[in-house]
Amino acid sequence: MSRTTALLARTFFGRFFESDLMPPGLPQAQLVIGSLVALAAPGLLLPARFAAKYLQISRDPQLLTQALLVDRLLFITLTMTAMGLVALVIWEGVFPDRRDARILAALPLSTRELIAGRLIALAALAGIFVLGVNAVPALMYGPLIAAYGAASNAGLGLVAHFIATASAGAFVFFSLLTAQGLLLNVAGRRIAERLSVILQAVFLVVLLQMIFFLPRMGAFVRTDLAAVAAHPYLGAVPSIWFLGLYDVLGGRQGAGSGPFAVLALLATAAAALLAAGLMILTHGRLMRRALEGREATGRSGRVIGRVFGRVADIFWHRRSIERAAFAFTLRTLVRSRTHGMLLALYVGVALALVVSGLIPVLLRQGLAGFARPDVPLLSPPFILAFLTLAGMRVVIAIPVEPKANWIVRLLEPGDRGAVSTGVRDAFLVGGALPATAIAGVNALVLWGPWPALVHTVVCAAMAWILSEVLLLTLQKVPFTATYYPGRARLRTRWPLYLIAFTNFCFTTAAFELLMISNPAMLVAFVGASGGAIAVLSAVRQRRAREAPGLTFEEEDPDALFQGFRLSEGLAAQRTK
Amino acid sequence: MLEAQGLTKYYSAVPAVRDLSFELQPGGVLGLLGPNGSGKSTTVSILAGLLEPSGGTVRFNGEDIRDDLIGYKARIGYVPEEAVLYSYLTGPEYLSLVGNLRSLPPRRLRDRIDGFLTLFNLQDDVHAPMSAYSKGMRQKILIAAALLHDPEIVILDEPNSGLDVTTTLVLRSLVQTLAAEGRMIVYSSHVLEAVERAATDVLILHEGRVVAHDSVDRLRGLMALPSLEQVFRRLVIETDIDAVARDLVRTMRL
């Protein structure tokens, strides 16, 4: 490896961590070690717990066999999720972008050196994380399964664990990179950048779903993978392929494992080769495109936004400050990649919870399970509304382009109540409306007009109340103030949030069942919730008006959050 | 009248501006000149109400601007030194944000935005985010945002940055027209020629202190020098410019 290639590899390795999701300014080693510890922690803790469990159930061979299969599947799933998260974090820095092109194209470097540098950096990153996440669990868990007969000996157990989990991680990692490479080449960077947030959210949902789905798999893997192989869909779940590989490498191959093992190896090789091939074959093209391309104009979307804005101006917002706060909040949520990605995390978790709640109904009763409204079927819009609105509240506290906030400081609105009302309206449109629409349409299709009406009204009212509650303490113009972490006090208040979440989603759904059968209760609910909204709205506006002024900078500069390259503190340092 | 009295600003005990005073009458154009780090941008930020001075006051029509800062800010238009904008917004969206924050009536705001975009030749880029704009295009948006509400005071900090020749000339004429209509203009720039042509008074800063404050003609006359550039050189520049250029070339060849 030449000095230039090594230098490029080091540079590209550093670029991987310049994602919007990673804090800037941290030493690279600290970032890598911190991420590794976070991702490896579950795998490090599990072997000891499993050892105790196997000892307990060792007298029941069938139960032990099943536990050994499901637990190995858990290790595989955890590694896949960890490597998937790594791939999503470095997503933006893998293929050459405009900045790379502008800096590197002007230097006397060959395409071969650039590609080699990138591939080495990618391989190093994948290697570090695969090794870091799996090496210690392999040392601990490999010999353990050998002791209980799931591997021929301790050495094979160790090798089987490491290769199976590492291949699974590599498969997810390179598959995601391949997906990004294909997207960039087929759709171009403009569309790719727009779609990437959606895609990342989808991948996140799938990755989380793999964990939520795990307990259900136990029913299918009792003694071996034969039942899975016979199932019409389960054989398509990638983690099962790697469980087959684990089985084969351990030397105690069960029925149905062989074909899955072959599939696992082929899939890993294909994903790695495709990612590398895309990098090699399209690097020059992407560099050229990055230099020549203009950014998206998005005419149609902006025209729709403009028309919608006019309609909102005419029928809705009478105060111009409300209009400004409303449009600015929604536009930033839609267009800022960082904020969009963070919000997508919340929506992703919501969708994962919704899917994991519905799958048992589907598995137990099939489509007949959806014939009548029930708590698991009524709760999804509430889950979606709760997590989306909570996510929006978190996200609006994080600044966007902090140096640009001079204009808001210069034009600090005197009517602060109008600011919070504009933001509330953005919450209603961005968080409450989609959840309510989903609730209404689904209920209409599944159960008819009356349940649909009840479901829509209850969902809209609850989402509105939640929006008001979340904005009671808002003293800022969204996205313009410094972020002071820890305000939510998650460490101490999490039981409160959990209670709020379960009541909002499930108690309300149970209550709604009663309203469907008793219209008088719906009338009472509408009256009560209308009153609650009026009171909360008045309190919110009064608090905003009585505040001494809008907050733009937090008082404790040492505690400034320095993530996302958005801290006003950092911006100020750069300005000086 | 805009009046600064004994303005002083410290950043962590380091003085950026010391004891700066001036008066600006309606129709006046005050040119702020000085090398990098002389305190121009700090002064401009204080005048725009963005920074609080460590000492001294800024008065507008006899009232301390700090007594009603929001009211004062409603009457100024400000073009900052750096074109920092919410780059994911389009030009019209940004202007709409500014206009709404200034509580302009919707129809008037739309008409003015359309007018500015047409006059600045930005109609073809109304659907593009400002991240795709050139430096000059962004600067035009900043100038439009500063003029959107017909301000009484216009504060321009390096307004020529990135502008093409035509727009630079338009801007110069615009400053003179606004002044002729009785508005007060504060014009901070490195482009000495632009200030010389537009300003009625010049205030030259060096290391945070005022080293000269008078009309351009009087400064030239007092120092017996033919141009503002030579006045500036004499007062502020302590470096042998030609020697530095020669040293740079020599270093290039080391």
Average of per-residue pLDDT values of chain A = 81
Which regions of chain A contain 5 or more consecutive residues with pLDDT less than 50? 556-576
Helices and strands of chain A: which structural class? mainly alpha
| Sequence of secondary-structure elements of chain B | EEEHEEHEHHHEHEHEEHHH
Main sheet overview of chain A: none
Distance between the termini of chain A: 41 Å
Topology as H/E string of chain A? HHHHHHHHHHHHHHHHHHHH
Please explain how this structure is put together:
The complex is a heterodimer of chains A (about 575) and B (about 250). Chain A has about 575 residues and is an all-alpha fold. Chain A is built from 20 helices and no strands. Chain A has helices spanning about 5-15, 30-55, 60-90, 100-105, 110-145, 155-215, 225-230, 240-250, 255-290, 300-315, 320-335, 335-365, 375-380, 380-395, 405-410, 415-445, 450-470, 490-515, 520-545, 570-575. The longest helix of chain A is centred in the N-terminal third of the chain and has 64 residues, at about 155-215. Chain B is α/β, with parallel strands linked by helices. Chain B has a six-stranded mixed β-sheet, sandwiched between helices. A four-stranded antiparallel β-sheet of chain B has the order 2-1-4-5, with helices on one face. In chain B, helix 3 (about 90-100) packs across helix 4 and helix 3 packs parallel to helix 5. At the A-B interface, helix 10, helix 11 and helix 15 of A face helix 2 and helix 3 of B.
Features:
heterodimer, A: about 575 residues, mainly alpha, 20 helices, about 75% helix, disordered C terminus, B: about 250 residues, alpha/beta, six-stranded mixed sheet, four-stranded antiparallel sheet, about 40% helix
Describe how the helices and strands are arranged.
The complex is a heterodimer of chains A (576) and B (254).
Chain A: H1 3-16, H2 28-57, H3 61-89, H4 98-104, H5 111-147, H6 154-217, H7 226-230, H8 238-249, H9 257-292, H10 299-315, H11 320-335, H12 337-365, H13 375-378, H14 380-396, H15 406-410, H16 416-447, H17 449-470, H18 490-517, H19 519-546, H20 568-575
Chain B: E1 2-11, E2 14-24, E3 29-33, H1 40-47, E4 55-60, E5 63-64, H2 69-73, E6 76-79, H3 91-101, H4 106-119, H5 135-147, E7 153-157, H6 165-180, E8 184-188, H7 192-198, E9 201-206, E10 209-215, H8 216-223, H9 228-235, H10 241-252
Parallel strand pairs in B: 3-8, 3-9, 6-7, 7-8
Antiparallel strand pairs in B: 1-2, 1-4, 4-5, 9-10
